[in-house]
Amino acid sequence: MFKSRPLGVLVVTVALVAAACSSDSGEIDGPTIKIGSANFSESALVAEIYAQALEAEGYSVDRKLNIGSREIYKPALESGELDLLPEYIGTMLTFLGGEASSDSAATHSALQAAWEPEGISILDFAPAQDKNGLVVTKATAEELGVSRTSDLANFNGTLVFGGPPECPNREFCLIGLQSLYGLDFLEFKPLDVGGPITVTALESGEIDVALLFTSSGVILAKEFVLLEDDKGLQPAENLAPAVRTEILDAYGDRFANVLNAVSSVLTTTELIALNKAVEVDGEDPDKVAADWLDALGLS
Amino acid sequence: MIEFLGEVVAWFADPAHWTGVNGIPNRLWEHTQITVLATSLAVLVAIPPAVVLGHRKRGGTFVVGAVNIFRAVPSFGIVVLALPITVALGLGFGFWPTFLALLFLAIPPMFTNTYTGVAGVDSDVVEAARGMGMTERQIMTGVEVPAASPIILAAVRVAAVQVVATATLGAVVAWGGLGRYIIDGFAIQDGVLVFAGALLVAGLALVTEVGMSYLERAIVPDSLQTAGNEVAGIAV
After folding, report:
1. How much is the pLDDT for A18?
2. Distance from C-alpha of A63 to C-alpha of A94, rounded to nearest angstrom
């Protein structure tokens, strides 16, 4: 092709290098951002949204989703195995030993202060909240005449409660339900984290009360009844990106702005619709995330 | 490391872990119970048909192949897939989906080994038996099964140990057993709990292995104890 061999080699080399530079690695130079999530679908979905928004901006991203419970992914984030993940401000603050309240802004600031010593920054919080919620079937709600969590105390010792295996160790789960509401369940069945096993158990009558999440798409779709948290056990649980301060410093405002823009339009209503698409309609999370970002002009 | 092992020892030494529904005796009992039940039922379901098929030596490859397809289905998948079925049958979560999965785990090796063992009995021996006037049924029970007993019992032993190890999966669908320590410990990242559970499972598996070996020694005819494989016609 080329008369002069060295020239040909040079052209091919330059072409290859140019191709390598402009492929997956994006246009922005810097460390690859490792994005993680907890082991339930909403967390993975929001993490996927963060990932696609950053990729659209030109950042190079590596996904490590569905890692596990907080005890697993928190150390991973602090040690640098992960750089970014979506968190819930109330539970995380309590996990760090702080006092969470239903005031989103106060809880958010307290979380920033509490986690900063470990080198983690919290970006702006989204309006969307996802709290632990006790759920019963429509039939159970009518039969027992319950609409609030405190109503369950009238049936102490008779109801079977199902939730994630860590529930008995959680302040906002069984521990709080026992101490604040005085609830005493007949039995606790360890299932999964608000996933299909728990939903099947509730539908089939295996359990009477399930721990699901307030932004779950399943609650509306299956006509379950979400019991009101009338004594305010659950604190503000807005979603916010938790990111290693090192990464934030490396990339600066432009990086933070991408994620803040996503957070500003993520309301609880939007979150429920996103969850419904994945959990109930069975759509692919990657596609759901992409469509959502497209519709909002964020990708 | 030493500190961690110290914590594990302390866990076992804690009397609270030996009482109640989540105590070691209860979980061991649940685990042993499901293992015995699943293995026994698998023996009843897998071995007689396999003996008959092995004796007839017809269509065996096809049936063995079909049965072996179940080896490819992960037990975890069966436990979860069984849920709608057990729910529809009113059997619920916990024990039954786990039992079903363990049954599917234990049957294929027992079936395959029994078929191979019986089909592989030295044909001269079978012919001699026929020549002596034994009925087909007498040949199966008096010649082929005893001759193949080392292989059959080996399969039962291996299957039983696999069932012990896999019964831990039941904890995912709200069953108890020793898997409870592993799954719950993992959810709260309590390494000591996970390790203790794993130790208990390993211990039970070892006991099962040793116990079954003694059973083999008791059942397999003396003349076949060591090199009985010559009659069985199969190399170990």
Report:
1. 55
2. 27
Per the DSSP assignment, residues forming a β-bridge with A210 are A135, A162
pTM metric for this prediction? 0.77
8 Å CB contact of B187 and A192: no
Where exactly are the structural domains of chain B? 25-225
Task: Give me the phi and psi of A240, to 5 degrees please.
Answer: -150, 145
Cβ-defined contact of B174 to A204 (cutoff 8 Å): no
Distance CA(B133)–CA(B131), nearest Å, equals: 5
- Would you call B174 and A189 a contact, using CB atoms and an 8 Å cutoff? yes
Superfamily of chain region B25-225: MetI-like (1.10.3720.10)
Report angle CA B132, B136, B137 to the nearest 5 degrees: 115
Domains (ranges, CATH) in chain A? 31-129+236-295 (3.40.190.10), 132-226 (3.40.190.120)
Q: What is the β-pairing status of strands A160-163 and A239-244?
A: unpaired
| Cα–Cα dist A148/A152, whole Å | 7
Closest-CA distance, A163 to chain B, in angstroms, reads 10
Instruction: Give the one of A72, A191, A201 whose C-beta lies nearest to B189's C-beta.
Output: A72
Nearest to B173 among A68, A169, A197 (CB): A197
A191: contact with B, CB 8 A cutoff: yes
Reported as a single tens digit per residue, the pLDDT across A120-144 is 999 999 999 999 999 999 999 999 9
For residue range B144-203, what is the model confidence (pLDDT) as tens digits? Answer: 999 999 999 999 999 999 999 999 999 999 999 999 999 999 988 899 999 999 999 999
Taking Cα atoms as reference points, which of B73, B76, B96 lies closest to residue B85?
B96
Residues of A within 8 A of B174 (CB-CB) are 162, 189-191, 201, 206
**A233 three-class SS:** coil
How far apart are the CA of A182 and the nearest CA of chain B, in angstroms? 22
Which of A162, A165, A201 lies closest to B187 in CB terms? A165
Q: What is the pLDDT of residues A169-226, one digit of tens each?
A: 988 899 999 999 999 999 999 999 888 899 999 999 999 999 999 999 898 889 999 9
**A225 phi-psi bin (left φ>0, alpha ψ -120 to 50, beta other):** beta
Cβ contact A192–B172 (<8 Å): yes
Q: How far apart are CA B118 and CA B53, in angstroms?
A: 9
Query: Which of B21, B186, B192 should be substituted to probe chain A, the one whose Cβ sees the most A Cβ atoms within 10 Å?
Result: B186
- In the sheet with A132-136, reading across from the earlier edge strand, the strands are A187-190, A160-163, A209-213, A132-136, A225-226
The answer to whether A206 contacts B92, with C-beta atoms less than 8 Å apart, is yes
Tokens of A228: 């009101």
